[in-house]
């Protein structure tokens, strides 16, 4: 009984952390990157502001990395424990369920790689957090393709996660409300995918 309560709590915290703060940070990060479409100087200014925020270490630890890796690691655990239930879910929901897990695994690998290519290089190897850093990463066509895949997977995971979050927390209870927010989540996916892909192509 106690174990069941703990798992229920962990799942709700997992769902919440995917929106606040991880999802919010994802959107901020995408919008900061989108400033590159306004020019190199605009991006360098935006990246400089983000890189020089007060209490940066505290913010990175407790607003980004701890919630993000809790969400990711527990999400992988859920992914390998869960099974699609054709009798319980409709065909579309089964695919959304499957793609949510798959995109989560892709996102974990992508974000870890992205952190290595950017933050680790800046903090430990003397690279500068500017346009040239990202441009150098995606100069390789394979890296560019993997970045696009990672961005799309991350955005899908977040957008579909908004829909599941609202169900998990009892906000959208009726089938009609779930259907409405399903369309909204598709809109979020399209808009954020455009922003992310447009930005990464601008670096290339």
Shape descriptor reads: globular
Helix percentage range: over 70%
Distance between the termini: 54 Å
Instruction: Give start-end ranges of low-pLDDT stretches.
Output: none
Radius of gyration (Å): 18 Å
Total strand segments? 0
**How much is the average pLDDT?**
90
Total DSSP helices: 8
SSE order, as H and E?
Answer: HHHHHHHH
What percent of residues are in strands?
A: under 5%
Largest sheet: none
- Helix-strand makeup class: mainly alpha
What this model shows, in words?
This protein has 204 residues and is mostly helical. 82% of the residues lie in helices and 0% in strands. The protein has 8 helices and no strands. It has helices at 2-19, 22-34, 40-51, 56-81, 91-124, 131-137, 141-168, 175-203. Helix 1 crosses helix 4 (56-81), helix 1 packs across helix 7 and helix 5 (91-124) packs across helix 7. It is globular and about 50 Å long. The mean pLDDT is 90.
Provide key terms for this protein:
globular, mainly alpha, 204 residues, 8 helices
Question: How would you sum up this structure in a few lines?
Answer:
By secondary structure, the protein is mainly alpha-helical. The chain has eight helices and no strands.
Blueprint of the fold:
Elements: H1 2-19, H2 22-34, H3 40-51, H4 56-81, H5 91-124, H6 131-137, H7 141-168, H8 175-203
Helix pairs in contact: 1-4, 1-7, 2-8, 4-5, 5-7, 7-8
